[in-house]
Amino acid sequence: YSDPGESSGCGGIYNGSLQIVGGGSTGGTENPGGGNTGSGNDLGSSPGGTNPGGIITGADGVSLNDAKVFYGREGVIYNPNLLYHTFIAYDLSQCLPASMTYIDNNMGGNHTIHVFNNWMFTKQPDYQEYGGFKSEFIPDLIGTYFSTAESLPQGGLYEAIANGHYILMDVPNGKYKNGVPQTHTITVTGYDPASGNLIYMDPYYGYEYEIPYEVVKNTSFVYIINGRR
User: What's this model's pTM, rounded to 2 decimal places?
Assistant: First the structure.
């Protein structure tokens, strides 16, 4: 799908646990949302906190290798607040700030990618050379610019999308570096009730793809964004 080459993955190195993040930016790296531990299979039942059941397996589990370009079809449920179905394509190493720019602009903001890059450089000056942003800084980055849901609605991600929330998600790209799974940050914009597939904006290409919902079992973090700060 997308090849980070020698990078560590644009969303940071996978830390061995699924993080379903809500309620702002604090609470620690291991439990940033202060929520409950879940089973790794149901995002709707375990908002916030660390989920040790979420294991990135790359070739064995759903990754971006399973994604395909989305050309549109009837019946798809989109975030009702979505303004843009295409966006500027950015370098692979900038998928996190690019995704944040996309969300900010859809929510009526006018931040450019430079706003988020400047914040990231203050925390990790070598982040572009490193090939990605270290996961330890991500909760503060998100919390500085966005408010996040305290918990998922009963209907999980599907209901969150229909309610107008933006889903920022870090997923396996199917690549490895020194045996470590690499990741890519995307924004989920809709879903297809017929197939269950998630529709997302890929900041590397600047247009939408679809992927099986099961990818959420393999993600390293999920933020339910409901406002700008």
Answer: 0.76
